[in-house]
Amino acid sequence: MGGRNTDNRFLGYYKESYNEDRDLLVYGEKPGQGSSFQALEAYFHEIWNQPCCKEFDAKGGIGGLEQCCERVKERYPEAFDRIYSKEDWEKATMETRGIELWTNPTEPENKEPVVWERMIAAMEGEEDILVQTPYMICSRKMYEDLRSVCEKGARVDIVINAVESGTNPFGCIDYLNQKKKICQTGVHIYEYLGDQAQHTKSLAVGEELSIIGSCNFDMRSVYLNTEMMLAVDCPELNASIREQARPLKEKSRHMSPDGRTEDGQNYEPREQDMAKRAVYALLRIVISPFRHVL
Fold first, then answer.
1. At what angle do helices 169-184 and 140-151 cross, to 10 degrees?
2. How many domains are contained in the chain?
3. Which of 81, 90, 98, 150 is most buried, most CB within 10 Å of its CB?
4. pLDDT tens for residues 21-53?
């Protein structure tokens, strides 16, 4: 489970630019018996059987997927040659107390924000919440939900891409326009400026719950897309996610709810080129009336 798209920035062989992602492997001792697996299989068939879906033969076609696979085999032969045993899988995974699949409705139309509402419900009552999302494009209701979580005593840290490194121009532009509203919710923003943009969609809620999958903190993911997230009850996984986020925060500019900013100890400012700044300045004006369709 994860949030990767099917192009070389996400599934390529990583010789040039790529996006950093988080993937989650669920291993069960009894094949096909896990409840989250059964839910995922049912969800797949529900989408596959939608009247709007059509089969498309991609053999030898889009993106050269077969050629890409061969290049990956050449670069990482050990991933394909080794036969993994039950003991190998157990060593590579963490025992959980429960896993649930959370999904949005599958109809190709505006949707009830099921995944978002379950994430907000999970956050309520917790004191320490860590969110990773590539960008934020929030509705008024989403801002209200985040404000409600913070007003109930939670410290909410959100790690997003800095505008200088973000690969979604509309997400970057909307963030520039919405900074004040984001601050007013009470969340802490960490503008991550690393070598590669992050594409991770995950939450560490409290000390036990982790939520990982494909749902961005944006209106398209919340109200339109067929997103899915795995909710995992596992303190060890939660701690691992928080530890992996620590160096990202150190390479970030921290914006507090009162608007103050502080550079992380490994944050290195980077200038945007003049052409990009000019385009962003123009688009900040142009997209304002249309941000709900971004």
1. 40
2. 2
3. 150
4. 999 999 988 888 889 999 999 999 999 999 999
Q: Could you give the angle at the alpha carbon of 183 between the alpha carbons of 273 and 128, nearest 5°?
A: 110
Query: What is the domain-level CATH number for residue 292?
Result: 3.30.870.10
Domain endpoint, select from 38, 73, 93: 93
Distance in angstroms (rounded) separating the CA atoms of residues 246 and 19 = 18
Residue 4 vs residues 10, 18, 24, 139, 165: alpha-carbon distances, Å? 6, 11, 11, 24, 18
Q: In whole angstroms, what is the distance from residue 167 CA to residue 199 CA?
A: 9
> Does one domain contain both 78 and 185?
no
3-class secondary structure, 68: helix
Evaluate whether residue 40 is within a structural domain. Answer: no
What is the C-alpha to C-alpha distance for residues 180 and 183, in angstroms, rounded to an integer?
5
Kindly state whether residues 189 and 256 are assigned to the same domain. yes
Number of other CB atoms surrounding residue 266 within 10 Å? 13
